[in-house]
Each structure stands twice: as C-alpha cells, then as structure tokens.
Amino acid sequence: MARTRHARLDCAPGCPVEGTLQMIDGKWKGVVLFHLLSGTMRFNELRRQLTNCTQRMLTRQLRELEADGLVHREVYPEVPPRVEYSLTARGRTLEPVLLALKAWGEDHVIAPEIPAGEVELTLVPG
Amino acid sequence: MARTRHARLDCAPGCPVEGTLQMIDGKWKGVVLFHLLSGTMRFNELRRQLTNCTQRMLTRQLRELEADGLVHREVYPEVPPRVEYSLTARGRTLEPVLLALKAWGEDHVIAPEIPAGEVELTLVPG
DNA sequence: CGGGATCCAGAGGGATACTG
DNA sequence: CAGTATCCCTCTGGATCCCG
C-alpha cells in the first residue's frame, strides 16, 4: 500500500497495528531495518543488499526512517564522503517485529523460481 | 508502499522479511487480519471496525487476502445475503506477527495529531 | 561516495452510483 | 447485505542526469 505518509491512523485513532505498519511501510523500510539489526552500515553497503532498490529510493526510505526516529544517520566529513546508518534505540525496539516477519517468511513464503525441494537455507535476507 | 502486488520479491529472491510484508501490505490488510484473529466476522461487521475504509476497499483487500490463502470467505445463499470471513489455518499462522505489530504500536505509537518526529513543544506562556 | 533535481508512468486508492 | 462499475486523482517509485 501506500498508506499516506503518516497522514493519520485511518483504521481508528490509536490503532496500534495500523500505527506500526505505517512505520515499516514503504517499499524498502522493513528490509532496511532488518539489515540494520546486524549493525551499522554504509550507504552503498546497504544498497548492495537491496538488489532492486534504486539509489534514490534507498535515500528516501532512509530519510523517512530517520524522520521517524528509527534510524540514525552519521555523516563523516571526509573525502570521499562516508555516511553510516544505524538503528536508534527506538529502532531497535522493532526487533521483535522484524524477527516475527522474518520467521513467518521463512516458514510460509514460497520462494520464486526456487522449486520446493532445493530450498536454499541461506536465510540472510537481502 | 505500494509493493507491486506480488510481482516478485524485489529485495532478493526468497527474502523472508520482504515476503511477509507483501502479504500484509495493502492499506487495510494488517488490520483486517488482526480483527479476524478474534473470530469470524460478517462483511459489514468488519467494516464497522475500519472507520475510514470504503466498501470497495474492504472488498478488494479481502479478495486479495483470500487469494493469498490467508482468509476464508463463506457465502450463505440467503436473502438478504450473508458472507462471513475468517482466517484460514495459514492466516492464523500470522498471529505472532500481528501480535508483535500490535505490541509495538501500543508501546511506541504516539496518538494521532502528534506525528512522530515533529513533536513540538509549544510552550504556553504564563 | 552519497547524494539532489527533474520528469514521468501507473498503481493504489477515494467518491459516488447502481444492483442481485 | 454485500457487493460491482466508473471516474478521477494522488502519491509512489523508476529513470536519468547532475553535484560537492
């Protein structure tokens, strides 16, 4: 979906499910957050994980996550530039949610073009 | 976001996080699934829970959930018509995910009209 | 390296009216 | 009651080029 960016909680005022979904809604947010669970990552490092994510999209998703207080952006005044992304304390509280998402996916999502039987167990997302 | 409806796993083939998100992506899906955790519900019954969801949208979301094998639709040949929705076995496996979403929302989602991130402290003088 | 600016298509979603 | 059928528009997200 595209839930209107924090326009409001459409379900009902204060609906917790809707509210949480708004945080991880955006084509790449869930996955970005998940990867950052592993630790700090540089921009391109993160990008390499998201095979089909354009540079512009990754930037935008990261900015929104930053605005939501879930991700911290650290810019190092160097040449060439270095920017590192990490989860904030608030972002880390999403860990149970992200792990639940991952666990369900591992059990129930049928992988595309990977016929059952030769299911690969490299479950590192991204 | 609007992830293209199951077009593919954009993150990476088999990415479990991305895959799970695709299931509950759609403006009302997460909330619908959550409400169905409580048990079978009729169409309008469900609709009353989703304050701002139009009839058309609810129908569409339910159809997609049905197509994904998460929701069962039972039509009773009566007049007036009666249609009941319930979670399938597969749908019920999402319970941990939905509960995680709810739990986080309860703890971290700031009530509407106070968008997270731009919390303003308008100091009333005097 | 890590972006920003611009242009653009189309899917997602809203409003409204009609129906078996 | 539980939907279709249209119309229309917003916003997301992709492509491309440029920048310090």
From TrEMBL, chains A, B:
A Pfam family assignment: HxlR
Residue ranges constituting the HTH hxlR-type domain according to the UniProt record: 15-113
Record keywords: DNA-binding, Transcription, Transcription regulation
SUPFAM superfamilies, alphabetized: Winged helix' DNA-binding domain
Domain of life: Bacteria
A GO molecular-function descriptor: DNA binding
Name of the protein in question: Transcriptional regulator, HxlR family
